[in-house]
Amino acid sequence: MANLSESEDLVLLEALKMGSQRAFSLLFEKYYLDLVMFAGVYIHDQDACEDIVQNVFMELWRGHETLGVMSSLRSYLIVCTRNRCFNELEHRKVISEHVRFEMRNKDVFDSHADEYIMFSELKILIDKLLDKLKPAERQAFELSRTGGLTHKKIAVIQNCSVKTVEARICNVLKTIRGSIEKNYEPI
Length: 187
Prior knowledge:
80% of the residues lie in helices and 0% in strands. By secondary structure, the protein is an all-alpha fold.
């Protein structure tokens, strides 16, 4: 199965759109292992990588009737897998930061419920701001802050200059700072 051409992928994709479980199975067999290995570049947890790829295929099956015309199913699956990896990394970072915050402030935390509420509100505010960003700015920011990538690596991923990446991240930080200053008193 691993030698199906892109044109055969398109035939299978058309069959999938009509609900063919066989086409879905063939595509799953062809791409599953490669996508799990690709996810491993971002997430160093085999079970999590398998879950991510299984979820990508579940979404593919759920939306099979409304799939838009794609020139390359392989590219589509890679992008979906990469995006789910970024989401997982973001989720893990939020959990890790929250645990560290609670551990540092364990005794103080009980007496400062207002601070916790403000922290939660700040997180919500930042998430809303990130949702409103241009996709390239958000991706650059998340790759830098969540993914820990250098500006040079982000520039390669985004196919732009390092200066452009720096400007995108700077714009995001300015937006976040401006909104925090507007909505909260200095801490």
